[in-house]
Amino acid sequence: MSDCLFCRIVNREIPSTPVYETDKVYAFLDIEPEAPVHVLIVPKQHISSHNALTEDNVDVMKDIHLAVNEIVKKLGISDSGYRLINNCGPDSGQTVFHLHYHLVGGKSLGTKIL
Ligand code: AMP
Ligand code: ZN
């Protein structure tokens, strides 16, 4: 998808700060961090949103969640904790239509979701 921002980041056509990478997954720093740790985790293949996930995507979804555990260990927030967020669709405020998870932490996020 040549017009997709995160496909272009995955393909290194647009610069990003890498945090973690496997054959199926890429994680990089959010350009406008909202917490001391704010990482975006994306599948390398283009999937437009959580709504678009099917059985065909089980392998990459498994890798995304395993990647989270590796990233939080690498960044030292495994024990202090973190939040994993997916925005899907207009009401969520999704702005980039390539599936991604926000991994945020590095401070107390409180007990409320929003
Ligand atoms: P969402 O609102 O869930 O679609 O989140 C999109 C996220 O992408 C936002 O947190 C943006 O700050 C982030 N973002 C947009 N452009 C870039 C970029 N070039 N590099 C890193 N993060 C970006
Ligand atoms: Zn894409």
Please provide a written account of the structure.
- With 114 residues, the chain is an alpha+beta fold.
- The protein has a single domain, classed as HIT family, subunit A (2-Layer Sandwich).
- It contains 2 helices and 5 strands, in the order H-E-E-E-H-E-E.
- The chain has helices spanning 5-10, 58-75; strands at 18-21, 25-29, 37-43, 82-85, 101-105.
- It has a 5-stranded antiparallel β-sheet, covered by helices on one side.
- Strand 1 (18-21) and strand 2 (25-29) form a beta hairpin.
- The N and C termini lie far apart (32 Å).
- The model has no long low-confidence stretch (mean pLDDT 97).
- It binds adenosine monophosphate and zinc ion.
- Zinc ion binds at residues 1, 4, 6-7, 46, 98.
Number of domains: 1
CATH architecture: 2-Layer Sandwich
Give the biggest sheet.
5 strands, antiparallel
CATH superfamily: HIT-like
Report helical residue fraction: 10-25%
* Total beta strand runs: 5
Layout: helices, strands, pairs:
Blueprint: H1 5-10, E1 18-21, E2 25-29, E3 37-43, H2 58-75, E4 82-85, E5 101-105
Antiparallel strand pairs: 1-2, 2-3, 3-5, 4-5
Bound molecules: adenosine monophosphate (AMP) and zinc ion.
